[in-house]
Design goal:
Number of strands: 11
CATH architecture of the largest domain: Alpha-Beta Complex
Radius of gyration: 21 Å
Structural class: alpha+beta
Number of domains: 2
Distance between the termini: 30 Å
Largest sheet: 7 strands, mixed
Number of helices: 10
Helix content: 25-40%
Strand content: 15-25%
Order of helices and strands: HEHEHEEEHHHEHEHHEHEEE
């Protein structure tokens, strides 16, 4: 195997990553630790997600978008819990294709999203690997003490909502692979969503104040709603045809003969990074006002009932799903 033509771990850290570090807490990335002052009245909340080449991103995806994606999937987790992010730890496992220009592009992607989302690098590790590239982020944030929203708070009578649009992750992978017969502008929008999903960070405060249970939609809408049902010990009823889709998703749906099967694919495909949550049905009007203020689409999908599991209907008829989403084996 040819040697990787880079200037070494220390130069990567000094020239590319240290400029991204928090000016005080990150200690210039030279001290092996980060020191974060405590925040009275708040809980420190952490989440961790990793992306692996060939599993979570394609081998020819630009590394600046890979950097943005690994930050955004973590930002989505904290947003779904009503948490304000502030910093992250990063592990980079560079493959042989990750030369100096690719590493520069990766750092540029991090810099763009640090500015966009108000976070800083605090530390981490880098290593060269002969295998596929992978990147891991541990994201940290603050939440008011005792106010982190869990999956387990849904109660019968609550309504079930989702932000944004569902299915663009599923379609975006197909678009990035060149296997989706849509107009070029639709392909571009879907590919961009797959590579750089937009976390609903602007809705985090609303989730904190109004949601009874929540999580981000990464495994698939139906699977993730099932996680809420299981953790809360309740049943959830969903109307599949209410699944919100983008303009590109609607264009794809319009070409499907079996609309029910098409909606099933969109609702189980995953990689959407929206927020699915439950809240008191009486709060629906207030939730819609808050979503409109933030220019976020909000859809009511169904309701929480007594029982267990997720019961899915399409235009009034029960649906028996072959699969509900992705699992991490």
């Amino acid at each position: 195997m040819p040697a990787v033509d880079v200037s070494g771990e220390f130069e990567t850290i000094a020239k590319l990553l240290a400029p991204l570090a928090h000016p005080e807490w990150g200690r210039g990335l030279v001290d092996d630790v980060a020191v974060v002052p405590s925040r009275p009245g708040h809980d420190l909340v952490l989440t961790k997600d990793a992306l692996v080449e060939g599993v979570h991103f394609l081998p020819d995806d630009p590394l600046d978008t890979v950097a943005q994606k690994v930050l955004r999937v973590n930002l989505s987790d904290l947003a779904s819990k009503g948490v304000e992010p502030f910093g992250y730890l990063l592990a980079c496992h560079w493959s042989p294709r990750c030369g100096w220009p690719e590493r520069q592009a990766f750092a540029e992607g991090l810099a763009r999203d640090q500015k966009a989302f108000g976070i800083h690098l605090l530390g981490g590790d880098t290593v060269v690997t002969p295998g596929p590239a992978s990147f891991s982020v541990t994201l940290m944030g603050w939440a008011k003490a005792g106010r982190v929203v869990s999956r387990s708070g849904a109660r019968p009578g609550d309504a079930v909502f989702v932000t944004g649009r569902i299915g663009d992750g599923f379609l975006g992978l197909k678009a990035a692979q060149g296997s989706l017969p849509l107009e070029p502008e639709r392909i571009e929008a879907l590919t961009d969503h797959y590579r750089r999903p937009m976390p609903q960070t602007a809705f985090a405060e609303v989730i904190r104040d109004m949601a009874s249970a929540s999580l981000d939609v990464s495994d698939g809408l139906i699977a993730d709603i099932g996680h809420i049902a299981e953790a809360s010990g309740v049943g959830i009823e969903i109307d599949l045809e209410r699944t919100p889709v983008s303009l590109a998703g609607q264009a794809w749906l319009d070409n499907r003969v079996d609309r029910q099967a098409a909606f099933e694919q969109l609702a189980t495909g995953g990689d959407d990074y929206e927020i699915a949550f439950t809240a008191a049905a009486a709060d629906e009007a207030a939730l819609r006002r808050e979503a409109e203020r933030r220019h976020i689409r909000l859809t009511r999908l169904g309701q929480v009932v007594s029982g267990s599991g997720v019961r899915v209907c399409f235009e009034g008829a029960p649906v028996d799903l072959a699969r509900t989403g992705w699992t991490h084996g």
